[in-house]
Design brief:
With 574 residues, this protein is of the alpha+beta class. Helices cover 46% and strands 20% of the residues. Helix 7 packs across helix 9 and helix 10 packs antiparallel against helix 11.
């Protein structure tokens, strides 16, 4: 019955591969049945068809004895070629579709282990076949007094012999009597020595060697750093920060260099990753309002990963800021000139250039919006803990991660109200779920409308999931919208931004952003000479020359008064 089920499985597998399973060929997903069916028939179908011929079933129906049936089953031995592909498919599914990660080391150990089990089964069957030979007067079955036992106990006894022989343990409790049995035993020992002693030992040794190499590299780096810092009398506080950085890189980042990973990719894939993390924050930034999507996509090429250490100032009041940052992960705090602090959410832009542009577009804040979170009724999750992001126009802040039922927390945000008679501010409440080493997911979104008053009011904000089309929970909070006093009014657009933990960001030089703006401004001028009076930075110029200015004739093809911003409108072409 089991053999019949196995035959049905492989025949179904042939049909699915020929008619149902799409394949990837040379980087293209082939979904048409006649196309991937032809690929299967040309490359893989021969072995599958031969091994799926039910000769053993036909022989069994014809009344042949067990020996003939067993010999016919050897034809299905060709299916072992499929074993590696099945296992690779399972591993790929686990790595891409689930949170379970199968490492290369564990995969190799699993493969060796399964090979040993299959090999033991085959040797066990052959050894039992030799012992059950009626033409021999004395075999291991008679010598071991197993002739009166049932087939199951004989199989278990022969499997026991195959296991200790292949693994080269060699207890010798099962007698090997005849010359053919002894020859087969020697062949089994030789194969076992190769598989177990050489194969398994080599895999385990490789795993240990890789672990030792990484551990020794990390340890040597730490020891050399300690020696350097002690020799040059580095401040103990700075020494502690450096050692904490190494610990974070070893344990949390697992010695992964983000910049090296991006450099190993093709230019198109690298740009897609940077586009995924940085395009929306740059698009929402007030400084880039006049830029087209293509111009922003070109600017993203100049960005690169940056890891900020705890206590590091990314921008500081009164000091020139040389870089812009897109906050990706970690804890980053922002403090304005009145010492009001807020936590920044993922995707926030950091830098004086962005705060100045927001200040120019929206004006100086006039009121303070304060939300005091009291309690929440949200769906439970086993994957992470929730937190709240508050949005008003271009301003963003967030709450702490709520790992318990204690939700009480005050969130303050300075906002700009309109000049109408109705003084109110609308805020968007986004509830997100924090997950370690994974993208944070959005649970739902709600909205509140706060009216200017010196008194606070308690309200319940419903959280709505747009994907499900239903309300998933609610948050109870106290809302206050009060006019800023002279003491609380900000005197400058500049803020001090500090990393509270190891924080992952993407960095952009301010000079690149300004050079792109100068180029776009000059390119809209009527005179061609004026368009190129202020050239962009080196990296921007190289990108422009390669993708937009292939020849002198194309540079001079603009009609007088025509804006060249249209050349940036296709980010994919860039």
């Amino acid at each position: 019955m089991v053999d019949l089920l196995v035959d049905v499985f492989f025949i179904a597998d042939i049909y699915c591969r020929a008619r149902k399973f799409a394949v990837t060929k040379d980087g293209f997903l082939i979904t048409l049945p006649h196309e991937f069916g032809k690929i299967y028939r040309d490359e893989e179908s021969a072995v599958d068809l031969v091994s799926s011929i039910p000769i053993s079933t036909i022989v069994c129906i014809g009344g042949a004895d067990g020996r003939v049936y067993g010999m016919c089953r050897l034809l299905q031995f060709l299916r072992i070629i499929r074993f590696g592909k099945y296992l690779d498919g399972i591993v790929e599914f686990l790595n891409t579709r689930t949170n379970f990660v199968v490492t290369t080391a564990s995969l190799r150990v699993c493969q060796i282990f399964l090979i040993i089990l299959f090999l033991c089964h085959w040797c066990c069957c052959i050894f039992h076949f030799m012992g059950d030979d009626e033409n021999s007067q004395l075999t291991w079955i008679e010598s071991d007094n197993m002739q009166d036992e049932d087939l199951g106990k004989r199989y278990l006894r022969s499997f026991y012999w195959a296991m200790y022989t292949i693994t080269t343990i060699g207890y010798g409790s099962v007698p090997v009597v005849t010359i053919p049995e002894r020859v087969f035993a020697m062949m089994t020992m030789a194969v076992g020595a190769v598989i177990c002693d050489a194969g398994l030992t080599a895999v385990l040794a490789s795993i240990v060697a890789n672990k030792d190499h990484q551990a020794s590299t990390n340890n040597r780096r730490i020891q050399c750093s300690k020696l350097f810092m002690d020799t040059h009398n580095i401040d103990p506080t700075l020494q502690t920060k450096i050692l904490e950085y190494y610990t974070y890189a070893d344990e949390e980042m697992r010695n992964i260099n983000e910049q090296q990973l991006l450099d190993d990719l093709s230019s198109a894939l690298r740009c897609e990753i940077l586009h995924h993390f940085c395009f929306e924050p740059l698009r929402e930034c007030a400084y880039f309002d006049e830029h087209s999507d293509g111009a922003i996509a070109s600017l993203i090429k100049a960005m690169h990963p940056y890891l900020a250490a705890p206590g590091e100032c990314l921008s500081e009041i009164g000091k020139e800021c040389q870089s812009l940052y897109v906050f990706q992960k970690g804890y980053v705090q922002q403090r304005d000139s009145t010492n009001t602090t807020t936590l920044l959410p993922e995707g926030a832009m950091i830098g004086h250039l962005t705060t100045h542009a927001t200040f120019i577009k929206e004006g100086q804040p006039t009121h303070e919006l304060q939300l005091v979170l009291l309690s929440a009724n949200l769906p439970k999750s086993k994957n992470g803990n929730p937190y709240v992001v508050v949005k008003n126009a271009r301003r963003r802040c967030r709450s702490q991660i709520k790992s318990s039922r204690a939700w009480t927390e005050a969130i303050s945000m300075k906002v700009k109200l309109g000049s109408g008679k109705l003084k109110s501010a609308e805020a968007e409440i986004v509830v997100r779920e924090w997950r370690k080493r994974q993208s944070h997911t959005t649970i739902g979104v709600g909205r509140i409308l706060a009216s200017a008053s010196s008194e606070s009011r308690t309200t319940v904000c419903s959280i709505y999931d747009a994907d499900k089309g239903e309300t998933v929970g609610s948050i109870q909070m106290q809302v206050t919208l009060a006019e800023l006093s002279e003491k609380d009014a900000v005197a400058s657009h500049e803020v001090t931004t500090t990393a509270l933990s190891f924080s992952h960001l993407y960095k952009l030089d301010v000079s690149d952003a300004k050079s792109l703006r100068e180029y776009l401004t000059n390119s809209s001028k009527a005179e061609i000479v004026e368009r190129f009076r202020c050239p962009p930075s080196l990296q921007q110029r190289n990108d422009i020359e390669q993708s937009h200015l292939p020849s002198t004739s194309s540079q001079l093809s603009f009609s007088e008064g025509q804006s060249s911003n249209s050349e940036w409108d296709n980010p994919k072409a860039i």
